[in-house]
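step=encode ok
step=design start
structure_in=
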């Protein structure tokens, strides 16, 4: 059993899509074991996405992530990291498969509704970034 960090991004919280997105996770067999709605500062968004700091879209990405509340959550299940990324779909919604979250809800490659950890090591780091041990049962 594995855990991964998921974020429902501002474009999706603004459109009141949290429940529809969570239904996709649960239908895929992922269990939401922790969840909270927070508003990131520019500094916190910058730190979370530090791996992308040399990419041309970094500034835009941080501004977007700090523009409105996000829902951060821990998803649990068999192969949760890969399964979550499958349910999310490709980064660019134009390339996402039918039925995926990004195909159905994303507005653009930047405003693409969800984040999901990409490997076991980053999942552990990203979960610890948002949640304390006490919040994880
Ligand atoms: P995430 O890390 O959010 O789960 P991902 O792993 O599919 O998404 P990354 O390559 O890690 O994609 O990019 C991180 C985020 O940066 C993307 O989800 C998207 O919001 C933004 N992004 C990526 N590429 C672009 C781009 N070409 N233009 C604008 N924003 C982009
Ligand atoms: Mg990524």
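sequence_out=
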């Amino acid at each position: 059993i594995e855990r991964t960090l998921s974020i429902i991004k501002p474009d999706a919280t603004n459109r009141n899509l949290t429940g529809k997105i969570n239904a996709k996770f649960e239908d895929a067999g992922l269990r939401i074991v922790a969840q909270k709605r927070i508003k990131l500062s520019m500094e916190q968004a910058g730190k979370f996405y530090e791996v992308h700091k040399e990419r041309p879209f970094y500034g835009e990405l941080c501004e977007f992530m700090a523009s409105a509340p996000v829902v951060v959550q821990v998803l649990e299940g068999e192969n949760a990291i890969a399964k979550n990324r499958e349910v999310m779909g490709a980064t660019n919604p134009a390339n996402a498969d039918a039925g995926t979250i990004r195909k159905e809800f994303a507005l653009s490659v930047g405003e693409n509704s969800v984040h999901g950890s990409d490997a076991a090591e980053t999942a552990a780091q990203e979960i610890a970034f948002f949640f304390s041990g006490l919040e994880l049962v």
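step=design ok
step=annotate ok -> The first strand starts at residue 2 and ends at 8.
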